[in-house]
Fold:
Amino acid sequence: MSAPRVFFYVQHLLGIGHIARASRIANALQNDGFDVTVVTGGLPVAGFPAAGLKTVALPPVVASNAGFSGLADERGVAVDQDFLDRRRDLLLQAFHDARPNVVIIEAFPFGRRQMRFELLPLIEAIEASNPRPKLLSSVRDILQENRKAGRDAETVGLVRAHFDGVLVHGDPDFVRLEDTFPLTADIADKVSYTGIVAPPPPRQASETFDIIASAGGGAVGMELLNAAGQAAKMLPADLRWLLISGPNLPETDFAALSQAIPSNVTLVRFRKDFPSLLGAARVSISQAGYNTVGDLMRTDCRPILIPFVAGGETEQTVRAERLAKLGLAELLPEKGLTADHVATAVSAALAAPKRRATDLAIDLEGARRTAEIIRAMLA
Structure:
């Protein structure tokens, strides 16, 4: 009997969190015996999707503004209708070539509305297929709030009309979908919680740093990194610091940081062994994105979280406040962040007792559980 085929669409527009989470899920599906094709629509990210996965790379688009309402190509130029039509046609061809048993669309219809130009035609193609594949939405546990009037009802309509299930990648004892999606009751029969899609427990680190400051993809992390680099000058010089800028930090900003940091600070763009480095560190300074927090939950490293709030973003703030309430993190505001704030928080974190998510029985096996849920759905 041939392996069930999964067609997994993921579009990242700013950071790398969406593609990183999708890659972990795709790996788990492949390890469970599925034949997986991952379709990506953002800028290439080293290491994602992982080697060994079938991939289809659509012509990339990125967010052209902080509110995520516009699309631009890899040069930052606003895309035109011809570009969008070409992407749509390539996506539909990839779908027909893959002949999947299951289609997973990451974020939509809860987010990624700007991709409707290709996702609605994809859904039409799914409905017209015989046999029709299962259609699943893959969403993180915390959604962006303050959506426009009517958006939630539109989402419910699409889910009820076309989707066989909604995979919520979270632990309901930590946060529930209805906490940020008020109409969850209308789709409750479609919802399955998978647990948080965290990495496996980290391996032994190849080197040790006391404090690690990371900016995710790097597109919006300069203030965090600069404050961390300056804070290092205010604290004991025997503390070893690592600053990870992310691949998308502009080269001019990277060069400026390189000139400003003291000798006990190492600056790099990317570390493939980031989870293991966190496992050996005493303190982490980062935004509160889904994947970074998942990495942190596998360790007893003390997090200092600085949620991303530009463009009215609320998701990271909700996550950081939940963790702080549980005693799992310190919280600093992004607006007005200074080196003094960071230095004070680092001193407090270094002195704080260690506490980790596993002590609270938060489910971190979301990737493996996703594969089990889909396997059961097909049985």
User: Anything to note?
Assistant: The first strand starts at residue 5 and ends at 10. DSSP finds eleven helices and 15 strands in the chain.
